Every structure is written in C-alpha cells, then in structure tokens.
C-alpha cells in the first residue's frame, strides 16, 4: 500500500500551521521536561542511588518535512483529510526521552509518570495508545522502549491550551541500539535491505541479553548498598550499632488496602494494576502498613474529600484519594486535607476551562471574524474574541456538484460573519462556516 499524493496546497498549509503552533509545542515540551525532572528528583519515589540512574534527555519537536512525510503513512488514511488534522492525529509532534540504567528502572519511572498528577494522559486517546510497551513486545525491527503519551496545558493568549507530548523511556543499551542502527531507517515507507534488518535484530537481541545481565548486577549491588536506599534501612539491632545486612521495610498488602477501602468508602476500590502497585509503594514508603494506620488515613482522606467538594465540586478518582491518604501521619490530618484540596482544585480548574470554552463556542453561535489566512481547502478566521477558528471548504461543498477553491471566493483581511458548526475543547479547535453565501456573492 503506498502513500497518497501530497499536493502543494496541503504542504503549504501544513507548513503555515506548523509555524503557528511550534512555539506552543516548545512550551509544552519544556513543561513536560520540568515535570519529569521533578519526578526523578522526588525522594519519596526514588532514593539517591535510583535518581543517579535516571536521566531526562533533551526533547525535540518533529521537523515540518518529517511531519509531512509521516502524515502520508497509509495507517492515517481517512483520518487526515486537512492539514490541521495532522496535529490531532499524530501524537509525537513533541517528544522527549528518559534513559535508565536497567529495565527495572524503566518500569519504575514508567509507574511514576503514570501516577503523576502533573503529567496526566490525554483525553480521547485509547489506553493502548497512551501506553505502549515495546520492551515487553519489541517492534519487528528490534526496537525496545516504553512510550507514554501525556498532556500539559500551556498559555496561549488569555487561555490555556492542551499539548500532547510523547515520552520515550528506555535503557542506555536500548538507546545505544537506536544510535548504532539509526532507528529512523526502520520508519514505515523506508525500504531496508534484508541484511541490515537481520543484523539490527541480532544486535537488539544481544543488547537485550546484556540488559538482563545489567539487571542482575544491579540486584547484587543493592544487596551491599546497605543504608543508602529507603527499601533497605540500617539494621539498628547490630551489636556494634552498624548495619551488617539489609532489613526490608514492611510492605502494605494490596488485599488489606482493598478491604479497608471498601469498609470506609462503601464500595470496591477501582484501580488499574499499575495504580495499585504505585499506591502500595506510596503507603509502604510512608510507613502506613498497619491496618489501623491505613484505616485512619482513608477516614481522613474521605473526610477531606467531602469537605473539599464544597469549594471544588469535582469527583476525585480512587487513585487521587489514595494518593492523598498516603500523606497521612498519626494524629495529623492536615497533609491529607491539603493534598485533597490541591488535587480537587487542579481538576476543577481544568474542567472549568474546558466547559467555558465549550459554552462560549457552542454550535450555532455566530461571530464576526477576520480572515487571516486563506488556502484552497481551508481558511483561518481570527474571531472577535481572539480565538482562531478553521473554516473548512467541506462545509461549502455540501450539496454542490463541483469542487470549491476558497482562494477564488475570499481573501485575507476580509471581515466575515461565521457560525460555529463544531467545537472540540480538548483539542482547542473551533470549526466554522460562513453565515453569508460567499459563493453567490462572487458569482454575482
């Protein structure tokens, strides 16, 4: 199956949109990098030894010509009709990377990102696409890594807009494979000699074996790194007061967490397996392993959630509530209440922003706008509110026997009355059509 032909108009329009949006993607990429740096430095998640094994690498914005080439991939057929669709369908326009020493480090940072309130998954994208594990199931080329999609809000004018970014998490050896084989060679549509493919797979397999050896080495080193990790504190019972062997901290039972949750909240706990593991770790690191402590922490979180609902009427997820509960310390509920309030405020602000956008630009609303760019298949309209809307030619071609070229009927700088026909708050996208008959105006 071959890629469809790229006409000059499509390429020109895509380049113009790319120039308009590249700064927004750069801001989004910086926010993701800052959040990743904060996660990797969080002592409640990673001890100093683990932190040294995690590296946030410089990110990149996909170049316009590579974005254009990727948009022609047959798998996007039917999904990319206009240049603006490229930015909705292709999710790795902005991407960054975390490199780790071992596969277990990859798994640890993956869980941390998935449970982070600062890097939520994008709305409207399937779970399978949001998290892709190419270590568990390598690509045919031999490529191994974990890919996560996250979403951050960045300022654009007087509002915030969501930006989707891809995070690639892989070991140093997996990263070396990409550098040695030029992984871009294996992109769809690129014909690779069979010998190159075979040798690359052999190299990937050999490095995967080395990753297993590296993990075994790390496991042995952790046994002697006594007192340097929160999982293995000093054995204070040694005769001379010094540590002689690792002493594992007690670990909370996930079954006990489920049981206590149902007792306090009155229903079954609803978490994914990765969320369960992250919550279990949070409670264990906080020392909340006794049933009485877990019970008190959940009572405090439940109470704080009810109180926070008065100011922030949003429903927190079970993961959010349990995350806040893990901040509990005996005889002190303040930390739990503060965390619940923070999570509720963040969620309410995001919902409110999306709802306000949807209400303002509801289908049927009419605005005065100025044409700022006109191409054959679409036009950009600067609305009086400051937002930019897309006028698609397909709304004019409905019921018409011939193809319409917008450049023949409208020009940049003209004022125009438009009606909203579709709005997507998550994508910050407004589609409009002319209120007046611009075709008839030019024909007359």
Describe it.
With 444 residues, the chain is an alpha+beta fold. The chain has 15 helices and ten strands. The strands form two sheets. It has a five-stranded mixed β-sheet. β4 (146-156) and β5 form a beta hairpin. The protein starts with 7 loop residues before the first helix and ends with a helix.
Summarize the structure.
With 444 residues, the protein is α+β, with helices and mostly antiparallel strands. The chain is built from 15 helices and ten strands.
- Contiguous runs where pLDDT drops below 50 for at least 5 residues: 1-5, 226-246
Average pLDDT works out at: 82
Computed CA radius of gyration, to the nearest angstrom: 26 Å
Strand content: 15-25%
Q: What separation lies between the terminal Cα atoms?
A: 45 Å
Search tags:
444 residues, alpha+beta, 5-stranded mixed sheet, 5-stranded mixed barrel, 10 strands, 18% strand, flat, disordered N terminus
